[in-house]
Design goal:
Length: 667
């Protein structure tokens, strides 16, 4: 290659690089590459040319100097081009940025959505007319300000963090903000924030297109609220309660403190609902909710689990404190309710489970408080702490619930009979029918463990009818042996709502030819007190039939004696808890004595239950108590054993152990 062509070639490259440099913006990167390349080529070519010339000896000192000068000039001119390119680059970029912004804002101006264009720092460069209409801010007053002056404080900070991360990474972010307008109104806006790029893919702006979603959001929030709250009482529901327990456990884990979960169930609420109607029931539930809320601190959670069950979450409490609060809650509900001019007395059973002692998971705690509640209910203690010993039983309870219907169909229930003594003649005058569940796997189950379940599920009325029929049929047989023989049958609160109960009894009495006077229906004092108007109509029709009524567990219910005068009651059964302790406890002795006197003054028969020894029996005789029942005479036994007692084959005083007797006597 001769020197002239090398020089021409390098000039050509130089021109090309200059043209590239002038086109700058789109080709900046490539132009630089061209310039560097051409410079390298020129240097390389020049060195090659010089060495060629030297070899051929055509080079003299002057020529060399000229050549070197030419190369230096070339390099300098190239440097100048680069310099110009850089200065013009910055300048051109800016004008092009503005150009871009102008074009962008023209597009944005036309859109019907409120739109903001910001620089890379989030400072407002442009807002459209729609934005001004909605927010009340003119472009002039907010230009250059960071967008966060719009922030109402209701958007969670992590939303912004997330937005910046996304858009800085060059992606589009979609989310919701709550913005504050100039006049202070708050608006939820769905924003679509997109990075805007230049021709070289560099982000130059951000554009946020905002859409008002205040209404949708309000609707969504209402739906969410509904999903998390009980519509009747407005209390959190089970799902929200679960979440709160979860949070409380996390907090307690951190602070090394305890949490209590209380599950409360109103006793006999179903009867109120069934007899007085849902309207009254609902009002009572609302009032219960208010009372519970008033009793606990604002940061504690009161929730409705469903039906007549409520939940309370207490944070940072120990056992004793939880029990104390449970007691206060219980007292708050015991205050009489006055609804639609009627007075109602309601009480509830409360079960307590503690974190960390009883579990570290909301499900477990709620389930265990249920176990404790059920224990409180079946033992009538009002309040119970979870105890792991209860658990076998609770698992059993759930199974029992499922098995109850089956048990009725499979005829797994049977009736045992406990003799009842005439304390004057010291002879067995009759029996009390007591139901048992002969469970194929669990063996014999006593009524306290399943009657409450049957009451809850409404199956009790079916069982009661079955017992009544069975008992009357058996009584007819015994009355053939002893025509004076009588039978007490227990009926539960819910049975009093069975409008056809008296009719059913009448049919059976007629069918088995037993006079109504041979039957005594036992109703507990507390259930009698609860649902006055409605229970009375059933009681009245039973009275019209000539059936006697006994008040069971007398002394454990309410103190008002008013109803004794009103109701057609013929006997009082003193609760066994007083009778069993009357030898040791003076208070109990006083209660027994005064109940006997009270009964006699009102012309009622008095039965003492729970007579476990000779001495008690003797004292009761002295106190003029008419009748007695208890292990001292006999436990409840199968019908065959009673038959032998009536015929004199068995001596009643020797038969005290229910299972022993049944095992030895009955085939
Ligand atoms: P209740 O009507 O008060 O029946 C007396 C309970 O005390 C019976 O328990 C009986 O076995 C027990 N008992 C009798 N004498 C003594 C004694 O000397 N000492 C002690 N410690 N206990 C004695 P049971 O059979 O377990 O019945 C418990 C409760 O279940 C009954 O209490 C009654 O309220 C209910 N119940 C029993 N059978 C029926 C029924 O057929 N229908 C309904 N609705 N409830 C029933
Ligand atoms: Ca009874
Ligand atoms: Ca009793």
């Amino acid at each position: 290659m001769d020197l002239t062509s090398i020089l021409w070639f390098s000039v050509l490259l130089q021109v090309f690089a200059a043209i590239m440099a002038l086109r700058l913006i789109p080709f900046t990167g490539k132009a630089i590459a061209w310039i560097i390349l051409s410079m390298a080529f020129i240097l390389m070519a020049s060195r090659r040319a010089i060495s060629l010339l030297r070899q051929e000896g055509i080079v003299d000192g002057e020529w060399l100097t000229a050549m070197t000068t030419e190369i230096v000039a070339l390099v300098i001119s190239l440097l100048i081009v680069v310099g110009v390119f850089m200065i013009r680059g910055v300048f051109l970029k800016k004008t092009l940025d503005e150009d871009e912004l102008r074009k962008l804002s023209q597009v944005v101006e036309q859109t019907s959505s409120s739109t903001i264009i910001t620089d890379l720092e989030g400072n407002i460069e442009y807002v459209n007319q729609k934005f001004t209409e909605i927010t009340g801010y003119e472009l002039d007053e907010i230009k250059g300000k960071p967008t966060n002056f719009l922030n109402s404080g209701k958007t969670r900070p992590e939303v912004f963090v997330n937005m910046w991360k996304t858009i800085q990474a060059g992606r589009v972010w979609i989310g919701e903000f709550c913005n504050e307008c100039k006049n202070g109104t708050l608006r939820w806006e769905k924003a679509r924030v997109s990075p805007v790029r230049d021709g070289e893919e560099k982000i130059t702006h951000y554009v946020a297109v905002l859409e008002d979603v205040t209404e949708q959001r309000a609707q969504r929030e209402a739906l969410e609220y509904m999903a998390m709250h009980d519509s009747l009482t407005d209390l959190p529901n089970r799902a929200l309660f679960y979440d709160r327990v979860y949070q409380a456990i996390l907090g307690a884990e951190h602070n090394k403190s305890s949490v209590a979960v209380l599950l409360m169930d109103l006793n006999h609420f179903k009867v109120i609902n069934d007899t007085l109607g849902h309207h009254i029931g609902d009002q009572i539930l609302k009032e219960v909710a208010n009372r519970l809320l008033r009793t606990v601190k604002t940061y504690d959670t009161v929730a409705r689990m469903g039906g007549d069950e409520f939940l309370v979450l207490l944070s940072d409490v120990q056992h004793e404190q939880a029990s104390r609060i449970a007691k206060r809650l219980s007292e708050a509900v015991q205050e009489p309710f006055v609804i639609a001019g009627h007075n109602f007395d309601i009480d509830m059973s409360i079960g307590i489970a503690m974190y960390p002692q009883n579990g570290d998971d909301p499900d477990v705690l709620i389930q265990r408080s249920d176990v404790a509640m059920y224990s409180a209910k079946s033992r009538s203690t009002g309040i119970a702490m979870y105890d792991p010993d209860l658990d076998d039983y609770s698992v059993g309870r759930l199974e029992l619930l499922g098995e109850v219907r089956n048990a009725l169909e499979a005829e797994q229930f049977c009736v045992h009979y406990q003799p009842r003594m005439d304390l004057f003649t010291m002879e067995m005058e009759g029996v009390e029918a007591l139901v048992r569940w002969m469970h194929p796997k669990r063996g014999i189950i006593y009524p306290d463990n399943f009657i409450p379940i049957l009451e809850e599920t409404g199956h009790i009325t079916v069982l009661t009818r079955w017992i009544i029929k069975k008992a009357i049929e058996q009584l007819a047989l015994w009355r053939n042996l002893n025509p004076e023989f009588i039978m007490s049958i227990n009926i539960s609160t819910r049975d009093l709502c069975d409008q056809k109960l008296s009719e059913y009894i009448a049919e059976n009495l007629k069918f088995f030819d037993v006079p109504p006077s041979a039957i005594i229906l036992e109703i507990t004092e507390s259930s009698l007190m609860q649902y006055s108007r409605y229970t009375y109509s059933t009681i009245d029709s039973l009275d019209e039939l000539g059936i006697k009524l006994a008040i069971d567990d007398f002394g454990t219910g309410y103190s008002s004696l008013q109803y004794l005068k009103v109701l057609p009651v013929s006997e009082l059964k003193i609760d066994k808890s007083f009778v069993m302790n009357m030898l040791d406890d003076e208070d109990d002795a006083v209660i027994v004595r005064s109940t006997i006197d009270l009964g006699h003054n009102l012309g009622l028969d008095v039965v003492a239950e729970g007579v476990e020894d000779e001495e008690t029996s003797k004292i009761l005789q002295i106190l003029n108590c008419n009748h007695a029942q208890g292990y001292h005479f006999s436990k409840a036994v199968e019908e065959g054993v009673i038959t032998k007692m009536i015929t004199g084959e068995n001596n009643i005083f020797k038969l005290q152990n229910e299972e022993e007797i049944n095992n030895s006597q009955v085939s």
